[in-house]
Amino acid sequence: MKISVIVPVYNEARTIELLLEKVRRVPVSKEIIVVDGNSEDGTRELLEKHQEFSDTRVIFQKTRRGRGNALKVGLKAATAF
Prior knowledge:
By secondary structure, the protein is of the alpha/beta class. The protein is about 35% helix and about 25% strand.
């Protein structure tokens, strides 16, 4: 069984790497989908590095649409339930 973990982010440069590290440590089969809502604090640059992980997909939105929209986008991209 594989699960999808959807992480909506906006200006989370201080915490995003720690959060993703902790999610990766959880011993279950998973895919991590990060939806960035057009961050302006360096979050985008940090997330670009995380695209190299095979279990992580990062979606960059061009405009801020809110957490609810980010969750909808993440659900559409999810392949595991």
